Amino acid sequence: MKLVLFSLLIFFWAMLVDAQPGDRRIDEEETYWKHQDIRKALENKDNKSWMRYRTLRRTERAKNKCVYAEVNKQKTGENVYEFVQRYRKEDGTIEEETLLASPY
């Protein structure tokens, strides 16, 4: 129980550290709610998404640039999407990770 509580505290603390007083995120803006359909985004014909505000700050990865994700495919018969996240490191090399997403 203590570990769960500690993990939750760390999670909320990290969110608070990244936010600024009075800062209103785009996903909190009521007029933007109608545009937040993850399934529609995953099934979009333009399968590459640039992540302008991707959290790569305040770590050794802070110097990474050009973070984007590319949806490759939906697994047949499943509600699971495979996508690749790529970013350019400070030395110019490109890192790539294959990830899975399952919208609920």
UniProtKB/TrEMBL annotation:
Signal peptide range: 1-19
Keyword Oxidoreductase (UniProt): no
GO terms for biological process, alphabetical: symbiont-mediated perturbation of host defenses
GO MF annotations, alphabetized: amine binding
Key words of the record: Signal
Pfam families to which the protein is assigned, alphabetical: His_binding
Gene3D superfamilies named among the record's database cross-references: 2.40.128.20
Protein name according to UniProt: Lipocalin
Taxonomic lineage of the native organism: Eukaryota, Metazoa, Ecdysozoa, Arthropoda, Chelicerata
